Amino acid sequence: MKKTFPFSCPVCARITEYPLSDLVEGARLNCSFCKCSIRLHGHMLAYVQKEIEKATGPNPAAGAEAD
Ligand SMILES: [Zn+2]
Questions:
Q1: Does residue 60 have a cis bond before it (omega within 30 degrees)?
Q2: How many whole angstroms separate alpha carbon 43 and alpha carbon 18?
Q3: Three-class SS state of 48
Q4: CA 48 to chain CA centroid, nearest Å
Q5: How far is the centre of ligand 1, averaged over its atoms, from the C-alpha of 29 (Å)?
Q6: What is the pLDDT of residues 4-30, one digit of tens each?
Q7: What spacing in Å lies between the alpha carbon of 63 and ligand 1's midpoint?
Q8: How far apart are CA 1 and CA 47, in angstroms?
Q9: How far apart are CA 8 and CA 11, in angstroms?
């Protein structure tokens, strides 16, 4: 199962799930509700990364997750 992150649109405040691999610096997130496109950077990127870290780590299942 692919891990996703619920990102709430700053324009319409509705939540779209994005795969974690899409949430990198400079990523374009297209809201599926209001169709606005958000560029992920700066404080928003920092926020998202912090939330992902909270959701995924520290990894309780022995982390053999090499790249
Ligand atoms: Zn939206």
A1: no
A2: 18
A3: helix
A4: 5
A5: 10
A6: 999 999 899 999 999 999 999 999 999
A7: 35
A8: 24
A9: 9
Question: Collapsing DSSP states into helix, strand and coil, what is residue 8?
Answer: strand
**Looking up tokens 């560029």, which residue turns up?**
39
Question: 52 C-alpha vs ligand 1 centroid, how far in Å?
Answer: 20
Distances (CA, A) of 61 to 19, 35, 64, 65: 20, 37, 9, 10
* The residue type at 61: A
CA 30 – CA 9 distance, rounded (Å): 9
How sure is the predictor about 57, in pLDDT bands with cuts at 50, 70 and 90? confident
Terminus-to-terminus CA distance in the chain, angstroms?
A: 18
- Stated pTM of the model: 0.72
